[in-house]
Design a protein that fits this description.
Blueprint (H helix, E strand, L loop, with lengths): L2 E5 L2 E4 L4 E8 L7 E7 L6 E6 L6 E3 L7 E6 L4 E6 L8 E8 L16 E2 L3 E6 L1
Parallel strand pairs: 2-11
Antiparallel strand pairs: 1-3, 3-8, 4-5, 4-9, 5-6, 7-8, 9-10, 9-11
């Protein structure tokens, strides 16, 4: 069974950058839509970005457009989130998620649309 493990979180000053990685083991993510979500304290988990199985399409929530970039390397079974120009409001636990429907893509924004989750990695942006 596929397992997802996030890494790359940490503490950064506002305006800085971080790159998150999600590594899959126990199976391939090559055929599946992958996404990043985040959950700030006291708030609901929200979609950040999603990428089509072949990487040719990406979508972002409005608050991160132009600052974050989602990418994938199917040969390495990984998905990444490059985060630039970070703001204090980006502080959250970031989760990698997979929708287990082969070759399907749409801008799925609900947590119930996704079938598999990582454990999360903390990102803290100081002002």
């Amino acid at each position: 069974q596929v397992q997802l493990v996030e890494s790359g979180g940490g503490l950064v000053q506002a305006g800085g950058s971080l790159k998150l990685s999600c590594a899959a083991s126990g199976g391939t993510i090559t055929m599946y839509l992958m996404a990043w979500f985040r959950q700030a304290p006291g708030k609901e988990r929200e979609i950040v970005a999603a990428i089509k199985w072949n990487g040719v399409r990406t979508d972002y929530t409005d608050s991160v457009k132009g600052r974050f970039t989602i990418s994938r390397d199917n040969a390495k079974n990984t998905v990444s989130l490059q985060m630039n120009s970070l703001k204090p409001e980006d502080t959250a636990v970031y989760y990698c998620a997979m929708k287990a429907s082969p070759f399907e893509y749409s801008w799925y924004t609900s947590i119930t649309d996704y079938d598999l989750w990582g454990q999360g990695t903390q990102v803290t942006v100081s002002s």
